[in-house]
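User: Hey, my collaborator sent me this sequence without any context and asked if I could get a structure. I don't really work with proteins. Can you help?
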Amino acid sequence: MALSTEILTLPPAGPGTERRLTVLRFTGNQPGPKAYVQAAVHADEIPALLVAHHLREKLIALDTADKLKGEIILVPYANPIGLTQFLQGWHLGRYELDSGANFNRGYPDLFEPVAAAVAEQLGADAAANVALIREALRAALPRQRPLAENAALKHHLYALSCDADVVLDLHCDYEATMHLYIGTPLWPAAADLSACLQSPVNLLAEDSGGEAFDEANSRLWWRLATRFPQHPIPPACCAATVELRGDRDVSDVLAAQDADGLIAFLTGRGFIDGPLPSLPATPPEATQLEAVDSLNAEHPGVLVWSAALGDEVSKDQVIGHLVDPETGARHAVTARTSGIFFAARGHRWVRPGQWIAKIAGRENLDWRKAGALLSS
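Assistant: No problem. I've predicted the 3D structure and written it out in structure-token form, which is a compact way to encode the shape of the chain:
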């Protein structure tokens, strides 16, 4: 058993400046799989930082008790750039202020170099193919030489995670119930993560667009399986974005509960020596991302909800109003699909065109375009 701490530095943005990442590596008492967990790559999503804190304490205790197997990497804060971005007292951690780039988009796409490297070496053994692909991933990364601070950060994070069996990216929404984003080929095998975290909403997509961190790790596997159908290539990386409710849901009680859920999941996946989690006989419900409706404001006004997060709502149901302070008009916000009202805009004054609510439906929606499903 061992815990090591690694410090990775980013290229300085100017004289006298340097940002760094702290990487905690837990190496178990016997060989096993590799897990990677990172917190708050959207640096203003604070619940992730507190969950990572509680997870760290639990992993240290398990390591001391010699209960860990394989390797678990924990990055307790994934975005030192965004952690320092404040404008007139407001924390802005979703986009880099310099470039406007989303910190959770644009991760390395190594599909073509990896495909070229393994094309003549793949065989009939799925496990051997997985090892070969991971070796090719590790070999391809040093050929990229990012110079800018944000690009270097993304390169570091991907280098830490690209050969992992499990990748969990901890986020939160503005106001929301717990929910997960997972690659469609990983379901229902990933239902254990949903069950352990008690997630009522699980959103599936093969390609949601933009090379988000979780998909940069997982999507390569089914793209390779499509490129080389004559060879067995499993979806070898169970990657998910874990949305830890809303950005104000910050408490030791919730964070400890969520860390316990992650420990239960890792135990079930063979990283921890302990009692296996009790899972439901029926897998949790999952929703294709094409079935998620994102409602936008049609009027300016004060946003007032009549439905509560987590409610099951019906198509054409009024779930809230936009109140115009000038005319006194109350414009109804109406559900366009039946499903779970799972996320809402945090700020209560909205302008036309801004998204205000998300509903996880059960039927794909004509206006949802595959491959461009995530908002920026």
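In plain terms: The CA atoms of residues 290 and 369 lie 7 Å apart. You can pass these tokens on to your collaborator as they are.
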